[in-house]
Amino acid sequence: MTNIRKTYLLWMKKVLDQTLQEIFITHGNKYFMWQNKDQEASDLDKDLREQTIKLERAQKQLHKTMREIKGTRQSQPIPFYLKDVMTRELQEQNQSALQQLAEFVAHHIEAGPVVTRYLEEKGLVLPLSRSPGGSLTRVLSRHTPSSTRLSLPGPGIKFVILTD
After folding, report:
1. What ranges make up the beta strands (E) of the chain?
2. pTM recorded for the entire structure
3. Angle in degrees, CA 132, 117, 146, rounded to 5
4. Is the pLDDT of residue 144 over 70?
5. Are 115 and 94 in contact (CB under 8 A)?
6. Interatomic CA distance for residues 87 and 100, integer angstroms
7. Are 157 and 138 in contact (CB under 8 A)?
8. Cα angle, residue 142 at apex, residues 136 and 145 outer, rounded to 5°
9. How far apart are CA 115 and CA 141, in angstroms?
10. Do residues 130 and 107 make contact, with C-beta atoms less than 8 angstroms apart?
11. Which residues of 54-84 are buried (b: 16+ CB within 10 A; e: fewer)?
12. Which uninterrupted H or E stretch holds 128?
């Protein structure tokens, strides 16, 4: 066998070995990515099951409450003090929901105009909330999509004013 042929065969073996090594590395990377995607899918399935359970629980509670409401209409009138307690509980729930909306708007400023418009249609106003920087924020609207954010440096009150 000639020297050139030996050199060529050694070179081909080296190239094939490198190619094979690259294939193994690529296969390993693909396998690792597949495992990660499989884990993500498992996590999402778990989250979906948890959310489904929560949704079913909320629907059961809603149906139970609806049955109670229908039952109270046919029975005796509710005493004033119970109406007062129920009204206060509903007001606390509404205030909590408005506070959560205010915090959502503080973190996602782009949602502010839409949320504010819907609330204004119902005659509601968002309470002050803490923005990510720790300052107080309130969204004000004049029924238009453009907005201006006014704020003072440091902890203070920031206003998002939607203007014409």
Report:
1. 129-130, 136-140, 147-150, 157-162
2. 0.37
3. 70
4. no
5. no
6. 20
7. yes
8. 90
9. 10
10. no
11. eeeeeeeeeeeeeeeeeeeeeeeeeeeeeee
12. none
Paired sense of beta strands 147-150 and 157-162, if any? antiparallel
CA pair distance 128, 156, nearest whole angstrom? 11
Q: Are the CB atoms for 112 and 160 separated by under 8 Å? A: yes
Query: What does the pLDDT read at residue 72?
Result: 64
Question: Predicted confidence band at 138 (pLDDT cuts at 50, 70, 90)?
Answer: low
CA atoms of 70 and 115, how far apart (whole Å): 32
Q: Rounded CA gap, 86 and 77, in Å?
A: 14
Rounded to the nearest integer, the mean pLDDT of the chain is 80
- Res 2: pLDDT: 82
3-state secondary structure (DSSP) of residue 100 = helix
Q: Are 157 and 137 in contact (CB under 8 A)?
A: yes
